[in-house]
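Morning!

This is the sequence you dropped in the shared folder:
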Amino acid sequence: MGSARINGVVLAVIFAVGGCVHAGTSDMVFEREAWSREVEKNGLDPAVVQYPFESSPEIEAWVAKVLKRHGHDSEGSRLDVIQSAMFENEFNFTYEDGTTLPAAEAFERRRGNCMSFTALFVTMARAAGIEAFLLAVRRTPGIDKEGDLVVLNHHVVAGYRGPRKVTIYDFNVTSSETFMQRFVVDDVMATAMYHNNLAGEAIRTDDFESAVWHLDITTRLVPDWTHGWVNYGVARFRNGDIDDALACYEKALQLRPNNSSALTNMAFVYRELGRHQESEMALRAAAHTSVNPYTLIAIADSEMIRGNYEDAASYLRRARWSYRSEPEVWDAMSRLARLRGDVRKAERHASHADKLRREAESAEEE
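The structure's back. Tokens below.
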């Protein structure tokens, strides 16, 4: 029996973003001292854990200046003033994907990713005496592939609970996709997400010891967060701790049975260990619920090896439905068409994949 070609580890990294987190409780943590107490309850020293909403005299002076210049009445209008000022030319904030910074440093350097920018807004709001917070939103995640890493990008926004409703401040100005659910993120969960981001950045630069350190903090702060355990497994595996990696994936599956990210990563580990039957079983289980095109491509390739072309086509149709602009989906469709003897269709799909790559390269250059 041939084994499936798995295109990459599914890494549920949160970059500009958060994942599907638990809803906040009634005793939300929204200030530094309460945060420190909660961190200590989890056996961690607050001095070595980064508080994302760390303010500074410079932030407080900037907020006071902006509000004095523009005037303000209600809390909501003050937030609108702060948000508008952050997009003015004189603020000059540079977006940098993969740069997760606490609020004070993001303000000083005027750079960072979406999470840094959103955390900075929350900190500015609090400097104005307004209890703003992070919201994780649920929608189809963005998926990027970098070498053998597949990165799932979720999203966070800022929130403010007014007298009648929760107002959302979304700083991902390039996104037009709507979201249906949102979850309040307290400061402890936000800290776990922050360290998870730093771990993802460390993995991308092959600094696996740092990634393990950050994810140990993440999983101790929020032990019931599935994505944290999946990423911890990725870091452990890449650091050479195979048994620990599998234990992390098993923990993720205990929290969320049939989690496709955990199952796909387990399949990757089993394949590396030569345990091909277990790899195939884990990958098939992942494919039932996954929208990740690379997981669906991997199981489609497995079906092609077996000669099950109709099943392979079914998986590829699912991949194309959500990610029709992904070149590797069309590459896989080309492979299937060639195996079926349809050379013209194979060439057409391959040509379309090349076209999509050229378009992506042109967009990056712009």
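Headline: The longest strand covers residues 132-146.

More detail when I'm at my desk.
O.
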